[in-house]
Design a protein that fits this description.
CATH superfamily: Cystine-knot cytokines
Strand order of the largest sheet: 1-2-5
Order of helices and strands: HEEEEE
Structural class: mainly beta
Largest sheet: 3 strands, mixed
Helix content: 10-25%
CATH topology: Cystine Knot Cytokines, subunit B
Distance between the termini: 49 Å
Shape: elongated
Number of domains: 1
Number of helices: 1
Number of strands: 5
Length: 134
């Protein structure tokens, strides 16, 4: 085999998995308030993808710090605010949501991420839908 090809393959396997598989991904959030007439579909970006993790089968032999699993999480983000249409005057019609600018593999930060797997929730509207492209 060509030595250049082998080196390129090894470099890609070593560095490519952690860099290319965790990235901003398009996502649609459906937001509605009981008091408002419409559901708002917001197109945004979230961090999604695969991060290399350690096999925890040898947990009795390893330190606890070696067992932490990396997740695809925000490196840089900003918040945007959308106006939910059809809300009465006594209701706050705004919804703020994160927009992923860049992502990284790292420990989950509970200050801005939900790090616990919960039961599966559906992401849909029960009211007439309006689309918000930010």
């Amino acid at each position: 085999m060509n030595p250049f090809f082998v080196m390129s393959l090894l470099f890609g396997l070593t560095f490519g998995q952690t860099a290319s598989l965790c990235a901003p991904s398009e996502y649609t959030i459906h937001v509605e308030k009981r008091e408002c007439a419409y559901c708002l579909a917001i197109n945004t970006t979230i961090c999604a993808g695969f991060c290399m993790t350690r096999d925890s089968n040898g947990k009795k032999l390893l330190l606890k710090s070696a067992l932490s699993q990396n997740v695809c999480t925000y490196k840089e983000m900003l918040y945007q605010t959308a106006l939910i249409p059809g809300c009465p005057h006594h209701t706050i019609p705004y919804y703020s949501y994160p927009v992923a600018i860049s992502c990284k593999c790292g420990k989950c930060n509970t200050d801005y991420s939900d790090c616990v797997h919960e039961k599966v929730r559906t992401n849909y509207c029960t009211k007439p839908q309006k689309l918000c492209n930010m």
